Amino acid sequence: MSKAKVARKSTRIDMTAMSDVTVLLLTFFMLTSTFVKKEPVQVNTPGSVSEVKIPETNILSILIDTEGKVFMSFDKQEDMIKTLIAVSKEFPEAYQYNVEIDTETGKLTGDPEDVKLLTKFKILPTFGADIRQMKEFLAMKSEDQDRVLPTLGIPTDSVSGVKYANGSVKTQFELWVEKANAGKSTDDKLRIAIKADQKTSYAVIKTVMNSLQTLKENRYNLITSLKQANDDKQSH
Amino acid sequence: MAEISNEGGGKQKGGKVKQKKISVFVDFTPMVDMNMLLITFFMLCTSLSKPQTMEIVMPTNKENIEEQDMSQVKESLAFTLLLDGDDKVYYFNGKPDYKNYNSLHDLSYNANAENSIRNTLTDRNREAIEKINELKLKKLNLEIADTVFTREASEIRNGKNTPTVIIKATDAATYKNLIDALDEMQICNIGKYVIDKIGVGDEFLIENKKTNGEHGLKYNIPK
After folding, report:
1. CB contacts < 8 Å between A and B, how many?
2. Are residues B9 and B104 in the same domain?
């Protein structure tokens, strides 16, 4: 009796080609994509037919949620720290950071505790808190910050703002925007982009727009998502 | 492919060189695993498309502007849009007529409705839209360059007899309403539009319209 001989074939598959493909895909994704910024609140932007893309750098984005809480994010970390220190100085009752920034290297020197706080602030993707509570907020653990942040927001009312001797009042929101652009030439001024939820009340948008208007920031972008206009109606 | 045949290490035996083939087969499976993992990570954590934006230019604060510097709008060309809550939108032509609540007309955001903003505005702006369509055709046929198109289109949009739209929103309106209204400006090729603060008079008009004139009987016309 002869046994049927089964030809033994190696089950090994050459993965080189597969590896080539995956590396290619990986390179593509790494080069084309930008990371999603962590936002404290979920915002559904309204659709529009506008096809203008947002510029990539030098952006000060203002995030407004459905309830009208305002958050901010910068794309340059040095700007963030500079602005925070400048805004704190306007409020004598707020915590004053005893830190110097090296203009060239961006290195922080000064009180080690404060340097620690500001380094934590610098890496926040989006922030927004009353300047008087900022120190407590920064001292929190990062998980706690994520939990608390959606309930905070930058105050836009004049009550919590700063009152000057000549009677004029600036809200904290106005101060943040003003200080962010302070000492910058028109060319490298931060471009303001407003990202608000569809359902946000116009009353809130109005306060933000009015604040920007008093600061003479008359050009800004409204972030929307793409929507197709039906063309047959357009020619109608 | 991933094999490297290595020749060498042959032993000498009786003058004859016997070569032993050592095949070095590199297994790429773990490499693929890792790459796949990385790809998944990048796909989930990044946004490929940049968000769309709408650029707007707001007027400077009125406090510092003299009367003579303000731009005047021809009454026949002024078109005021009033955005109210519950997705309601109204318009009136020229100056508001506080006595007659019917001077305020209902509009709809829905482009397919009879009284949509789009239909109303395209009617007003027909001349400019036709010119722009011609221009678009020229651009499609490569008769004119892109830059020429942009320049000429904006000239047509800001032409003499095109309507000027004033957008006013009540506090009850939502951000979406505002964006929708701004969107219609773009679709209808309106070059001159402005977002203005709502006045007491405008709110009076809306209230009057809602109650079919009853509000106007009870309260005085605001100045």
Report:
1. 177
2. no
